[in-house]
Design brief:
With 219 residues, this protein is mainly α. Helix content is 70%, strand content 5%. It is built from 9 helices and 2 strands.
Length: 219
Amino acid sequence: MKKTLVSKTDVISVLLCLLAILPGLIVYRKLPERIPTHFGLDGEPDGYSSRAFAVFLIPVLIAAMQALFCVVTRCIRKEEKDGKADRVVKMIMPTLAITLQMIILLYAMKKLTDITSVFGILVTLLIMVLGNYLPKVRRNAFYGIRTPHTLANQELWDRTHRFAGLFSFLTGVFCMIVTVMELPFSLMLVAIAIYVGVPFLYSEILYRRMKKKTQEEEE
């Protein structure tokens, strides 16, 4: 069977990115001419865009990036169908597009003032969701803990991603504590940096242990 360039999940994910236009279209006349679209670590806006750019162009650009991602992954991967974890990964961008668009619009209309807490909750949920599905991610060239060693060894890939899933949950709990207790947002950034690096370090340590064990068995 000939492999198609897009799947049902691909089409739905791109359409959901474009759906982020709808909230802005509904309240378009109530929005100011310039809308804050970038925020600093203190939660204060430090970048602005025109109303039309924020409402229409940002979702279109995100949808274009999502479409490119879907096509490239379908062209390179050999599998006919997306697995459950693949479908979840492809829904991350649409979910973020709609959520962030709502946050920007609510802030522009002065219906939302505490951006830092909202972002904290969003990051926490994202990390926890990823942690739930990381152990189910199949070997691929796009996402996951991808190193030459994990891509070459199924056991190493599986054990690394099981650890990454647990570590994601613990990182999510820490980020939630930072958010609820209104601790400095920089602590969350440090936690995210550690979250990104530790699974790779664990994978390398595990690889060396497995290699040493294999050598000892051969001797």
